[in-house]
Fold this sequence. Notes:
Blueprint lengths: L6 H10 L2 H8 L3 H15 L4 E4 L2 E4 L1 H21 L5 E5 L1 H4 L8 E5 L4 H9 L5 E4 L8 E9 L1 E5 L12 H6 L1 E5 L8 H6 L6 E6 L2 H8 L5 E5 L3 H6 L3 E3 L8 E8 L6 H14 L2
Parallel strand pairs: 3-4, 3-5, 8-9, 8-10
Antiparallel strand pairs: 1-2, 5-12, 6-12, 7-10, 7-11
Helix pairs in contact: 1-2, 1-3, 1-4, 2-3
Amino acid sequence: MFDLNLVKPFLSVYQFNSITKASESLGQTQPAVSAAIKRFEKTTGYPLFVRTGRSIEPTSMAHKLARQLSEALELMEGAVSSKRDFVVYTPANLLYNLPMMDGVLLVESPVSVEEIMEDIHMNRVDLVIDAGLPRQTAFSYEQAVIDSLVFITDPEVSDYADVITMEEYAAAKHITLKLLRQEVPMVDLLSGKSLARDVAIEVRSITNLLLALKGTSYIAAWPKTMLHLAKIMNFKIHQPPFELNPVEFELVFHKKYQTNVHHKELRDRIRGYLNN
């Protein structure tokens, strides 16, 4: 029968290329780790490491086993891990829709996609709410919420109708939200084209957009998921005069949490809040 207790010593030696460092990492003696590797080699029938000078190098069989066993171990550990505090990355516009939750730390997502992906791999974040993250086989992707844009104005200064015409849009002054990741205005990204307009103010945060718009006759694009905030500040809501693509936000997480009861409960709660 295969002894699962041999997997962690093997993966640790594979990671460090060292019996000494592996034993320190595992809190075991060097003879115990060496014995575990020998037992594992006897089980597989193949040598797993060869000595080169003062270090050891994995064999082709070790490379193959490490790929298979590391993923299997992560899935098992994720499925049985106990309830604990979760770290969740979320973009600013969705952050306002999530309440305080016991055992959950909400963090505004880093700008860098590479940083987000690495943080998932390194277990620095348990769940990410984002749109358009690259596909990786080690991750799971579930739909969270679909967002879209409307326009908002200050009715105390301007008197636009419920639907702003293309002529009004072209003649007006605008406040644009420039997305940090794409380095383009939000409307241009979702319309798929560069729209000619008179940009009076360019901001890089949702909060600054609201502050800049108040008391002006300008027009600004605004996410539907944050309509409640625009209404609290007494802005008027308008439908755009052209088609804008929706934004599909997803829940992205390591596959090892796919069947974890506590993680699934967290995903269901967040999805419920975002779609309420």
